[in-house]
Amino acid sequence: MEYTDKEYCLEVWGDWACFTRPELKVERVSYDVITPSAARAIFEAILFKRYAMRWQVTKIEVLKPIKWTTIRRNEVGALAGKSPIFIEDKRQQKNSLILQDVRYRIYAKLVFIPVKDRPNEAFAKHQPNDDENPMKYYQMFERRASQGQCFTQPYLGCREFAADWKYIDNKEQPELFPLSEDRDFGIMLYDMDFEGNQKKPDAMFYRARMEQGVIVVPDKDSEEVLR
Question: Which among 14, 34, 91, 204 is least buried, having the fewest CB atoms inside 10 angstroms?
Answer without folding.
Answer: 91
